[in-house]
Design brief:
2 copies of one chain form a homodimer.
Chain A: H1 12-16, E1 30-33, H2 37-51, E2 60-63, E3 68-69, E4 72-73, H3 74-81, E5 97-100, H4 103-106, E6 112-115, H5 122-125, E7 137-140, E8 146-148, E9 151-153, H6 155-162, E10 168-172, H7 177-181, E11 186-191, H8 195-205, E12 210-215, H9 218-240, H10 245-266, H11 278-289, H12 292-301, H13 307-314, H14 321-335, H15 343-353
Parallel strand pairs in A: 1-2, 1-6, 2-5, 6-7, 7-10, 11-12
Antiparallel strand pairs in A: 3-4, 8-9, 10-11
Helix pairs in contact in A: 9-10, 9-11, 9-12, 9-14, 9-15, 12-13, 14-15
Chain lengths: 364, 364
């Protein structure tokens, strides 16, 4: 079912040399690794965008974990009906988005890889593509963070390791997949180490309804995306207590400051401006007014159950990220003996896991 | 009705020399000029605070524009029942808050003046106190801005002029009067030129539920309080169009950036950090999710009427500030030939006053 029309344009050099965005010998070729709700939304944006840009090949491959939907293969549905009926129903891709059930095949000849799958799958996925990906640059859309004994581990660094040193940029911002897919205006931020790669991903994504800024700060951008879920717990506590907008605004402000402080404590090269980009302020605001972490924390404040019970009742099988990150953050801060420098993170942890009354959220 | 218990402590030198906060010859004496909703809320905070701080005299005078409520003078009600039943019903002052119908009398012996009245009343009020206020420092809680042909005029500078060069700090932040009065946790920011004065006002106001930060940037803090109302129109347009949280978060982020740019264009000494304080980010978030400017703009987007009709229908006699500021801002920016550098402010003006469809808010 894959369109072969454009494959002729794709030379083997394109896959093995780092192309400059304009004026190179070949064109950029994008592969999207993942096809859930967010992966499908971004596939819609990328697929449409590349058709109007000379420097990109039209065909965009998307690796789809094959499954059956109403007796048909999901890849076949996507390639025939141009819609991911399971994870992004009601939204049409441009026909140049080609679903592929084999990740190695999907990444063939790609110069730009977009990682948008749960990070738990990186370990089994990357070995299948690393051999074909020399000279590629990667973009991670994966939100989350891992922790070791010594501190936080960035998902982008995990990808870099798995992909034998590939340069990895990240994309974070105030963007709910369904809103992006419906072309509601929103913004996003590319964090990059190598400017030409940041520029290339910006060109791939930016369009009038999805405005993409960029900043030379991978760690800052990525940490904004992870720590916002902790702050959102605090915002949810406020909602559960029916406190006013002032209190929540204060939580958001202090949360952004602690996020910045955390980033600077564990990583170098963090930029102050990062926290004023979409990935910082805007994403945090969105998450603290919508989002599942806020919702579950509101239920917790209303004493509707334990975290596990609330997750089961409210999230329809999805996982609550904020509580996991909250625990990990506090473990790392306490190991370093600096928890007192993060009064909001500490207070949220005390309320979520140490039995402190929710009302104490206002006494920072 | 004024408590005279403590007047003996008040020496004439206290009124004519600038006291240092601690270790001076006398104690600080606070006078509040204004007694509306916000003035009364802050009177509750200040009245309670000074009782626990040695460096302040207990008595806090509040100038009240005399009026009759249920056949009694409002000042008598306040001094007997310790409640401003007209503008902040249901909230009790500590008894050391003394209402006074004569502004000259109210400011007698004061060392710290708190201006919290509509700025239109400054011209007729200040001449009555300027002679008694040598050596005082002032704090303005007045939100708003005026414009001349050459640019914005700060309310704090208007007070300074009226008061013959008195040093004026400002207080702005995410604080709705009724929430502050109910001791719901919130934050605020003092912007100062003279650090010792900023410290004094911070000490006067800060308490566990009303956390006050300070920063050496009067103009930046004050402009945050004025321009947020313009941004809130954009947020209201999003709500009226039923756009998602992403879009509103983007409006807030861009609005904060344009506020910073505007401040730096017209004033010197603006600090980047100001926009991350409560007066910046937190107040803007609150205003864009609650507040009357947002509410009226939502109605405008729903085509419920002209601005005048909406104001009459929704605001119960109060005035819509954002539309006035929006017009003035655009006049000033166009006179300077820089409107294109403020795409959000410009777009909000085009929608509000130039007939552009509201849907264009998303095409920045």
């Amino acid at each position: 079912m894959r369109s072969v029309l454009l494959l002729a344009l794709c030379t083997s050099t394109a896959a093995t040399s780092l192309l400059s965005l304009r004026g190179g010998q070949g064109k950029e070729k994008v592969a999207i690794i993942g096809s859930g709700n967010w992966g499908s939304a971004i596939a819609k944006i990328i697929g449409r965008n590349v058709l109007s840009k000379d420097e990109f090949e039209d065909e965009v491959n998307m690796w789809v974990f094959e499954e059956q939907v109403n007796g048909r293969n999901l890849t076949e549905i996507i390639n025939t009906d141009h819609e991911n009926v399971k994870y992004l129903p009601g939204i049409k891709f441009t026909p140049n988005v080609v679903a592929c059930p084999n990740v190695t095949e999907a990444c063939k000849d790609a110069t730009m890889l977009v990682f948008v799958l749960p990070h738990q799958f990186l370990g089994r996925t990357c070995p299948n593509i690393v051999g074909y990906a020399k000279g590629c640059r990667a973009l991670s859309l994966i939100k989350g963070i891992e922790f070791s004994d010594t501190g936080p581990l960035l998902i982008s660094d995990m990808i870099k390791d798995e992909m034998k040193g590939m340069d990895v940029s990240v994309l974070m911002g105030a963007n709910v997949a369904n809103e992006v897919a419906r072309d509601e205006f929103c913004e996003s931020t590319v964090g990059y180490k190598v400017k030409s790669n940041g520029d290339a991903f910006q060109a791939m994504l930016d369009c009038p309804t999805f405005r993409v800024g960029s900043i030379n700060d991978v760690a800052g951008v990525e940490l904004c995306g992870a720590l916002k879920n902790v702050v959102a717990l605090g915002a949810g506590f406020c909602d559960g207590l029916e406190l006013g907008g002032n209190t929540k605004a204060a939580i958001i402000r202090i949360g952004l400051k602690e996020t910045s402080k955390f980033a600077k404590m564990f990583f170098s090269g963090i930029k102050d401006d990062t926290f004023m980009e979409s990935c910082g302020l805007a994403d945090l605001v969105t998450t603290c007014f919508g989002g599942r972490n806020r919702k579950c924390a509101e239920a917790f404040a209303r004493k509707e159950g334990t975290w596990d019970e609330i997750e089961a009742a409210k999230l329809n099988g999805q996982k609550l990220q904020g509580t996991i990150t909250c625990k990990d953050v506090m473990t790392v801060l306490r190991a370093k003996g600096v928890a007192d420098q993060f009064p909001l993170f500490k207070r949220i942890h005390e309320i979520a896991f140490e039995g402190l009354p929710v009302e104490k959220i206002i006494e920072l």
